[in-house]
Amino acid sequence: MKAHVYRRNGEPTEVLGFEDIAAPAPPGPNEVTVRITKRMVHPLDDLMVRGYIPAPIPAEGTVPGGDGVGVVEQVGAGVDPATGIKPGQRVMLFPASGTWSERVVAPAMAVIPVPDDVSDTTACQIAINGITAIVLMRAALAASGGAPLLVTAAGSGVGHNLIALAQMHDAKAIALVRSDAGAAILAPSVPGVAVVSSEHDGWAAKVTATGGQAPAVAIDPIGGEMSAQLLNVLADGGTLLTYGGLDPRPSAISTIPLTVRQLTLRGLNAYGWLASTPVQRASDIADLFELARRAPQNFAEYREFVFTQATEALAAAHATPRRGATILTSET
Ligand SMILES: NC(=O)c1ccc[n+]([C@@H]2O[C@H](COP(=O)([O-])OP(=O)(O)OC[C@H]3O[C@@H](n4cnc5c(N)ncnc54)[C@H](OP(=O)(O)O)[C@@H]3O)[C@@H](O)[C@H]2O)c1
After folding, report:
1. 223 lines ligand 1 (CB under 6 A)
2. 14 found inside a domain
3. Looking at the predicted structure, is the pLDDT value of residue 175 above 90?
4. Is the CB of 198 under 6 A from ligand 1?
5. What CATH number should be reported for the domain holding residue 317?
6. CA of 156 to the centre of ligand 1 (A)
7. CA spacing 20 to 30 A to 218: which of 207, 242, 265, 323?
8. Quick one: pLDDT at residue 332?
9. How many angstroms separate the CA atoms of 321 and 155, rounded?
10. Which residues, at least 6 apart from 119, have a Cβ–Cβ distance to it below 8 Å?
């Protein structure tokens, strides 16, 4: 079968090959073979290929891809039919690896049936990014006491999910993006949500004025210099939830305001979700599908690349400002 593979880190155009590799073995007990139809191209994929995120490369090479949507082809022994996992069923995968290939074998617990009224393109956008948003929103709502939530890098995939979730929970979200051009792109896809640009001095005061009070929680994947600025924007007792490092520089944070203003800094990631109970996870997934139905505009803008065009897709995923998701699609 075809897959994108790298055997050394570097510039994607130089190290990423489109190759024939061995098809996966038939699914073992509690495993499922899925033919992948779509996968998101994430900032993380580019960082992995370039080696900015250290990960050993096995002799056979690494196939990128940590999430995906597809169709069940084979079901291993012991998979409970009550899960809805059966050949022909459309599913999304989380967690997964190596989805920049035609097929993967995944554990049944990572295979999530997708309802007929949710498209592959939307399911793709609510897989890892939606689950990340669920984890973040649960922590944000617990910490906010009803005060506004500030969502940074709000034009991102996770940002779109966070805003839709806030609306579902009747929580007030303020969307922060780094440029006026990004604000102009984001605003029409998040009606009813205030979008603020941090391109100019005075953005912090604008955030507070927009919310009618300082935000109680900031949800941020940027880090770097932004972390200290966000701690300054928060109300006393506020919480900065961090979930990424788009700015990889270390954050210079003084412990004095943390102490005096009783601020909290907390890191979260999508994989933490796997520790929640099966009942909680099922309820979260139902929420994500409901969100997809209620806020289709949040997922309407995306760029699709055919499966062979992985390097083009990686380059497009760098374009700034973002215009929605970048998706790598296999022929169906
Ligand atoms: N912790 C987890 O489990 C988890 C899971 C999923 C994603 N993430 C992280 O979440 C972040 C967003 O992922 P995504 O897939 O949603 O991204 P995405 O859709 O590709 O969008 C990235 C967004 O980040 C903005 N951005 C990039 N660098 C920035 C910087 N230095 N300062 C301000 N804004 C910046 C871009 O702004 P412009 O539009 O202005 O270019 C763009 O809107 C990434 O850091 C990713 O690693 C974490």
Report:
1. no
2. yes
3. yes
4. no
5. 3.90.180.10
6. 5
7. 323
8. 61
9. 8
10. none
The enclosing domain of 142 has a CATH number of: 3.40.50.720
Per-residue pLDDT, averaged over 265-284, amounts to 96
- Give 25 Cα–ligand 1 centroid separation in angstroms: 35
Domain extent, residue 106, equals 2-126+299-329
Ligand 1 contacts CB of residue 130 (under 6 A): no
Q: What is the pLDDT of residues 68-90, one digit of tens each?
A: 999 999 999 999 999 999 999 99
Going by pLDDT thresholds of 50, 70 and 90, the confidence category of residue 24 is: very high
Chain segment 192-228, per-residue pLDDT in tens: 999 999 999 999 999 999 999 999 999 999 999 999 9
269 Cβ below 6 A of ligand 1: yes
* 85 and 142 assigned to the same domain: no
Confidence bin at 52 (pLDDT 50/70/90): confident
Q: Answer left, alpha or beta for residue 10, where phi above 0 means left and psi between -120 and 50 means alpha.
A: left
Same domain, 70 and 148: no
The verdict on 134 and 257 lying in the same domain is yes
- If asked whether residues 111 and 146 sit together in one domain, one would say no
Q: How far is CA 212 from CA 45, 94, 152, 175, 240, in A?
A: 38, 38, 18, 14, 19
User: Is 247 among the domain residues?
Assistant: yes
291 is a domain residue: no
Residue that finishes a domain, picked among 251, 271, 291: 271
Is the pLDDT reported for residue 152 higher than 70? yes
Are residues 243 and 111 both part of a single domain? no
Residue nearest to atom 26 of ligand 1 (CA): 153
- Cβ(86)–Cβ(72) under 8 Å? yes
**Which distant-in-sequence residues (6+ apart) come within 8 Å of 202 by Cβ?**
none
CA of 246 to the centre of ligand 1 (A): 6
The residue whose CB lies within 8 Å of the most ligand 1 atoms, and thus the one to mutate among 52, 203, 246, 266, is 246
Cβ(231)–Cβ(251) below 8 Å: no
Ligand 1 neighbour 328 (Cβ under 6 A): no
* Residue 284 counted as domain residue: no
pLDDT value at residue 297: 86
User: Token pair for residue 331?
Assistant: 């022929």
> How many separate domains does the chain show?
2
pTM given for the model: 0.95
